Amino acid sequence: GNLMSALATDYYSLMVARVVTSLNHGAFFGVGSIVAASVVAPEKRAGAVAAMFMGLTLATIGGVPLATWFGELFGWRTAFWGITGLGVVTMAALWFALPNLKTSQSVGVMAEIRVLGRGPVLGALALTVVGSSAMFTVFTYIAPILSSETNGSTAYITGMLVLFGVGLTLGNLWGGKAADRSIDRTLIVSLSVLILVLLAFTLLMRWAVPAALAILIWGIASFALVPPLQMRVMEAAKDAPNLASAVNIGAFNFGNAIGAALGGAVINAGLGYPAISLAGASMGALGLLMVLAYGWRSRTVASTVA
Fold first, then answer.
1. What phi and psi values does residue 167 have, to the nearest 5 degrees?
2. Does residue 92 fall inside a structural domain?
């Protein structure tokens, strides 16, 4: 009885802690994007945003496995204390390293909320949801896919998750640099590659080496989307970007949920794992159509004004 009570207490404590820590996620990456873009030259803003997101991709490769290993060796509570220590060090580093940036006095909470209702901002947020869904429709189920379709061992699946993280890092680097030249072109190229690799993955998931190559390219294309998507929202809401930028992080997570639900619906329908990859490619195609439609509409408005 005492053991069950202790387990229940741990469970609910972890649930509460997860909700509390999640509250700072959107604020950190949203405001962090604004700060990163504001401390560099205008032509390097997307690259600066990508550099900030690099921490997220590197954590996928090394941080998560390291924390898991640390928790198994010293206990999960010790791992959380270690993360807390890292958080304190990060806060101190930001306090001393960041310049004292001034915010506009004319921008208030209501102004930021009104900006969220603009068509271009809503369109940019919708594109983030769709782009994130294209990635997470398949990634949510990557372990059972590799286990069932590729007949991969636990070591192989772990290696593929690390390889995917490597792809995220490479894609983030390229996406940041490319978005500084052209946001739309970066989105079109990334979504096109994402669609093609997910279509190919429906067949390549049967063999270990081709599946690994597809996973690497898929990771690159997936996170190459992040800097231009973040920049699109920041530019659409440039006179009041803080809330919009933070909400865009929520849009990524909303896309995560939609992708997981879509993949689950495919499984429940009995369509098989390859169909999940097709569903992800379909979400990517929807995103590509949105980018092309937005570009066409912008050119039409520009020619009308001219």
1. -60, -40
2. no
Counting every residue written for the chain, the total comes to 306
Which one, of 196, 211, 64, lies nearest residue 143 by Cα? 211
Where in the sequence is the domain holding 216, given as residue range(s)?
2-61+107-300
Four-CA torsion 75, 81, 82, 88, nearest 10 degrees: 170
Residues 186-218 pLDDT 10s: 999 999 999 999 999 999 999 999 999 999 999
DSSP tally for the chain: helices H, then strands E: 13, 0
Q: What percent of the chain has pLDDT over 70?
A: 90
99 part of a folded domain: no
121 three-class SS: helix
Task: Establish if 257 belongs to a structural domain.
Answer: yes
pTM for this model (two decimals): 0.81
| Euclidean distance between CA atoms 36 and 209, whole angstroms | 38
Report the CATH number that the domain containing residue 128 is assigned in CATH.
Answer: 1.20.1250.20
